[in-house]
Amino acid sequence: MNVVPDKFIRVKPESMRAFISSMFLKVGMSDQHAGLMADLLVATDLRGVFSHGTRQSAGYLRNLKERNLNPKPVTEVVQDSPATAVIDGDGSLGHIASWEAANLLVRKTREIGLGAVTTRNHHHFGSAGKYSRVASDAGFVGFVVSSHVRRFQPESSLGSAGGASPMSFAIPSGCEPPLILDMGTSFVLPRSMDFEEIFRQMPSVFFKSLGLGTVCHALGGLMAGIQSLDDGDSNWPAVNQGSFMMAIDLSRFASPETFKRQMDQFIRDVQALKPFPGEDRTLLPGHLEWERTKDWAIEGIPVGEAHRETLTEIGDELGVDTPF
User: Fold this and answer.
1) What distance lies between CA 98 and its chain's CA centroid?
2) Which terminus in the chain has less CB density within 10 A, N or C?
């Protein structure tokens, strides 16, 4: 889903933002929150992470329209200290509480060098890289994970314990694109037809996936308070997620200028290596997204047929004209 489609049309980011914002206004969101959702989802599209961009808005909008989620949330910092905080999302989309958390995290880290924030009582927060980038844009290292309520069946494979939880690290650089790892922690789903054969060939992949996924669940789920959601503590049926974010001020450990210069050299050294089979370039995580954002901001977002159909259908439901 995150491969540029063979056939697509280009949609200017400003047109897509206006369209997405209008739809969130239609289901009762405030101007501020509708604009934030549009900004975050379009920014995700611009990076080519189509799985978590505007294509997700159809499900979000229907949950808001049907009042499975709160369209008028009032987020609240329910626990606070110089280095930490807990933010309650008031039963809405995770983007709203998580964006607030990421920016609060930067302020705390700037003050004392380290910060950590959890969010709870909300729905999906999208791609984790949106929030880790807030830290790296401020010159800090960012780490973000999320998880959701899980109900296991005894007959399910151990592979399901990891889920598909997201994880992101963001590390600033100087002139080169920052190093940003933004990924789901599940590599091959256990229900895949060739799961057993793949497992026999590469068992370490699945054990690493299990480890990464369960760490996300422990930090971005259980520590963030999602177990209380499973116990019926939320009034909003679609609320099922939490998140954990941490930031580190590089200047407390090393000269930021020296670190960024060394990161730039490291990135350039990597780019001189031979690429993986079938690839024509050697790029570290985050580089391709950085390039796409620059280019597509001018050229427009490539929107494939399935993506376009999804947005057209929800636009028609809500009476909002599409930009294509």
Assistant:
1) 10
2) N
